[in-house]
Amino acid sequence: MIRNNEKQPLVEDKSHEAEAVGSTRSNTHFEFINESIRDFSDEKQRQQFKKSITSIKIQNTKHIDTQDLDSYITRAKKAQQHWQATAVYQRSAALLRAADNITTHRDAIAGVIIREAGKTWREADAEVCEAIDFLRYYARCAIELSIPEILNDYPGEFNEHWIEPRGIVAVIAPWNFPLAIPLGMTVAALATGNAVILKPAEQTPYIAKMLVEKLHQSGIPKDILHLAPGLGETIGAQLVSDSRISTIAFTGSRQVGLNIIKTAYDTKPDQHFIKRVICEMGGKNAIIVDDSADLDQAIVGVRDSAFGFAGQKCSACSRCIVLESIHDSFVDRLVAATKTLEVGDPINPGTDIGPLIDQEAEHKAQCYINIGHAEGHCALAMSSPLSAEPHANRPFVGPHIFTGIQQHHSLANDEIFAPVLAVIKAKTFDEAIHIANATDYKLTGGVYTRKPSHLTKAKREFNVGNLYLNRNITGALVARQPFGGFGLSGIGEKAGGVHYLRQFTVPRVCSENTMRRGFVPETFDM
Amino acid sequence: MLRQTQVSLPVNNFENRIQEIGADLLEDMHSLSSNQKEPLTDKLMSWSMNDNGFKTQLFRFVDTLPALKNSKLVHDYLKDYLFQPDVNLPAGISTALKAGRFARSAFAMTVKLQVESIAKRFIAASKPNDLLSILHGQWQNGIAFSIDLLGEECLSDDEASEYQNKYLELIQLLSQETCSWQAMTQLEVGYNHHEPRVNLSLKISSLIAKVDSINFDYTLNSLEQAIKPILISAEQNNVFINFDIESYALKNLTIKLFERCVTKYQFHAGIAIQAYLHSVEHDIQSLINTAAKYNRQFTIRLVKGAYWDYEVINAKQRGWPIPVYTKKVEVDASFERMAEKILNQTPKAVGQGGAFLALGSHNVRSISHALAYMKELGLPKNAIELQMLYGMAGTLKTAVVNKGLRLREYIPVGELLPGMAYLVRRLLENTSNESWLHAGESQSRSDQELLASPHQHSLLDEANHDTK
């Protein structure tokens, strides 16, 4: 049973709902309704949102030390057995309560994201919705998954397949979706009966603290979920190498991800299992625009995919591959349309692009901007408003667009994580696909075309985890666009998809010989 | 159905009046020579009426067509669109598409020319001189105009100022041109007001590059700055400016901008309002309050709303409440209620604050209802303006002009490329079995069905059992 001092409203109701959902296993997955984003054309919603976000103060979060972490792991290991034995309905009910809890305070939570990560109103609001979706979706997936499967029905034998938790999961989270991504990884682990140590990004510990509090309030036992704020080099490294951690769920940069994989698969003498690493690492995503594209649509789609949240998304568009015949007019309009974007403090509703996360990000962006000047032609270098810097306390980099970039250039291959877009010219649609595929990353991609055979070809030949046709390439929704790539973009199942939870489990099968002395128990269909 | 009117009416008498006016109009339409009718006789269109898969692909092709620079591309794309699964190709097309090279390019050109000629029916010429002769010709036929500038979406400040310049140029050009036209009492003398000859419709999304409600006050100020020169010029040149209404997301901005502008600038003002919105009653009330508070006269163009599919899909994708009525009969009923609400506000004296009704519909039932209600209120014919789209409803237009009513055509002007989205909407309308116009012109439905009241579904059954 869950031990918590909280009242447990609606557990029964939620459990019944959950049971009803889980009563039949089918290939057609349950229908999932996503949490609605705010309609900011509605004055009431605007006012309420504004009121909620203006009073937000970010507090400092203390780093833990190695001893703290060690004791967390010890306590989690002890508590995990009990959590595993807790009925899946109870675990899911706690997660559904957390979803309701976050929904109640969604605007204030969005305010924390705006303040701590520098997201704009819409981006922050959408992230809170995604977090709520993860809670509701995984809570229900876990119930479906927990029902043992009866395998082939042969007389005299009974075959059953079921899953069990893997143990303690280390969640190592990024700063760019400081609520939704850590929550998604954490909830997947909790729903399947694991304990979790969550190490948030150094840049965004406060929002992580809030999400852990919300989960504790909703009935996730304190020892089952620990927050471990600290540096990647120390706390992160210790987590990855600790022989009691069974699974590492990581989202972040490629370099760190590959290091984690190397370290985690080095099995220690006192370790009685092989770790599993689930890794989502990054992208160098391209949008192809061909000569039949609806340019009104394509320009807005490329612009918003490239510069939303200042390009700090693994799904962001950082390459735009344009067919020769429309290249010049497309670039002209794209540059003009980008100039209308407002760079500034994201606490203001009119801001389209906020600051970069920290000085290091700015330094990297500037390096690549310099490279861009050398490799190609600078079509746009927007400055940032000096007035905004003191407010946001963060560096600003305005949108940059470089044309004349070639396949072998750094700007065509390296993930920059800033509002820097490389425009590459292609002679034909086939060549455009070829260029799009020519990076190590395979995460998102997009095509704007009105030619049916080009759409078909893109589906077949554009190798990415998430392909978007005639729309922007960011903002994947839970259950609607399960998210994740392959190549060097990551390993693991798609987040927000039906298979994601399996990664946190151990599959087991039992075969019983039911024939004794030549007869078997009667079954109804024999 | 509750009727919310300030005049209490014996409903049946009123309904009988509507039926009389409607039957009369229909009779006039039927008696007009059939060469007035402009059904889409084109083979492509008639095929698309019979096969939805074909229709979808054909209209998507039409939408893409302007981007195709030569006949090889046209042929290539046409084949690509039509040789898809779920598309039943009429035999003639299939053969033509597979023919030899010369025939192929000839066929491609034929298709392109056909589409262009259809487009010309709905979109007036892009060259000012061609446009002027069209406008003048219609004026002599007793039809006034409102110009709608078609264009690409406005994505940058440059594109916004281009639009602004085009509006300003149009005001100058049309003012100069129309002053030499003959006087037309039917089109120029309204009830307690005067109608300018030059009438422009504009969309707020073409005024500035970023129209976004999230930053409401700032956006409103930017919009006002952008429209100010246009309104001042309109005032100086005695030009009517109508604020078109677009998607629901921009509706509040449009109304707020309009309310602000009519209190600050003394131009001839009008705004479109969509009857399919649940919020329509509240919106009209807000406009009426503004008219009363500032003693201002303006026109409300009541339309059913052209973005129905988009609004439904958009709301469903986001999980928002659907802002529009989802049944056609509900929209028709809302339209009648709102027509009454606006007609009740008709100014009773020159200079008195209030709203005139401009009724934008091709539906004889909707028109007859408004005319019947005017009779009940004792309003003369020139208290209402009828508005219809250029290139549609030919016989109905002639019939209402002959009745001495003021008719204004909404005339899209622009290049074919940006005009395609508009064209596809018209094509969908003209090939839809839901469309009143289509049913009316093809005479596929009885007059009783065409004039049925949207307020009582049972009325149709009663009518069928009626042995009077």
TrEMBL record, chain A:
Its recorded name reads L-glutamate gamma-semialdehyde dehydrogenase
- What does the record give as its pathway? Amino-acid degradation; L-proline degradation into L-glutamate; L-glutamate from L-proline: step 2/2
Which stretches does the entry tag as region Disordered?
1-25
Lineage of origin? Bacteria, Pseudomonadati, Planctomycetota, Phycisphaerae, Phycisphaerales
Q: How is this protein annotated for GO cellular component?
A: cytoplasmic side of plasma membrane
Q: Which organism is it from?
A: Poriferisphaera corsica
Name the EC number(s): 1.2.1.88
Q: Where is the composition biased (Basic and acidic residues)?
A: 1-19
Keyword Nucleotidyltransferase listed? The answer is no
PANTHER family to which the protein is assigned, alphabetical: DELTA-1-PYRROLINE-5-CARBOXYLATE DEHYDROGENASE 1, ISOFORM A-RELATED, DELTA-1-PYRROLINE-5-CARBOXYLATE DEHYDROGENASE 2, ISOFORM A-RELATED
